[in-house]
Amino acid sequence: MQLRYSFRLYPNHTQRGALARAFGCARVVFNDAVRAREEARAAGRPFPKAGELSTRLITQAKQTEARSWLGEVSAVVLQQSLRDAETAYKNFFASLKGDRKGPKLGAPRFKSRKDARQSIRFTANARWSVTDGRRLSLPKIGTVKVKWSRALPTTPTSVTVIKDGAGRYFASFVIDTDQAADAAKTPDSHQRVGIDLGLRHFAILDDGTKIDSPRFLRRAEKKLKKTQRELSRKQKGSKNRQKARVKVARAHAQVADARREFHHQLSTKLIRENQAIGVEDLAVSGLARTRLAKSVHDAGWSQFVAMLVYKADRYGRTLIKVGRFVPTSQTCSYCDHVDGPKPLHILEWTCPACGALLDRDINSARNVKKAAGLAVSACGAPIRPESVLAQRNEAGSQGYPSQARSA
User: Fold this and answer.
1) In 372-405, which residue ranges form alpha helices assigned H by DSSP?
2) Which end of the chain is more exposed for a tag (fewer CB within 10 A), N or C?
3) Active-site hit among 32, 206, 361, 394
4) Known catalytic residue at 336
């Protein structure tokens, strides 16, 4: 299993200039590869092969006056840029044929020096290394200061240097992990948990635990509005506008970093404490088109569930996704009676069949655990209720009752 470990870089003025040249050269080679393919397509010729593009766009281009500056950066960076263009076209054609899962991808576009994210990749052939002084030595760039937040478990296979929209630099190392060794280090657990994700509370566990939603974006809105207002008042093309743009990007980066840290801590805690986890398969893209869009994006459910997926795979845990049409908010977790849809302001209700007083969110979490087959009876047998289609007319749910019920 391959994972990425990212660390903050602090290049000096000279190194920032070298990185800018490397970003620019990689971008030019990528654009030349896209242009060569588009010209071949327009002329009705077959696409040029990767080897032909490498010879024409790198080796021969270095010998010309117009592209002689390509020799100022590592050749590995240019080769990896060609590979990125090749991968982009492969993903595009796979998406057209339906072989690639996920949303449809468009054709590769030309990169711009104004793009918020710039990156270059060094493989082992580039002879990069971590020095004895714990600095990152990169060819034709120098030894860059690194803020090591943790130790690398194994020797990385490659490193990607990234500059984000806020002007920060990062080194992203690709690590091959041993899943059996990681699973052996994880403490044994026989606990099983069902998780209901919401907006009023970020996560509700079947044992009644409610984890508050930090609402990082909502809390930072005042600062974001101020920085955005300052940006709108700056003259376009001026240096002051560029400085204001960086301030806006940094404010948004702080929100994203805080949300990601919260997701990492909570997902790691749940994976360590539970052998099996049941969670809903949320339709985030659908909810993002409703009046709850800002709150849905602020919660970041997709990122959190993605972390649960890869951490469960890494540490030998079981993660089960429950279908989004299972009526978890309409079913009594005691007698399995389906009572129909309820408005979002109904937080508690009494089951008409058994008379149990039910908390809407906790009841849903228990039903998620049942639907995932993780609940057990007194004799230890698993409990799984019959599949019942949810009513599609629940207020504000757009057919997905469990996702919006905690607004």
Assistant:
1) 401-404
2) N
3) 361
4) no
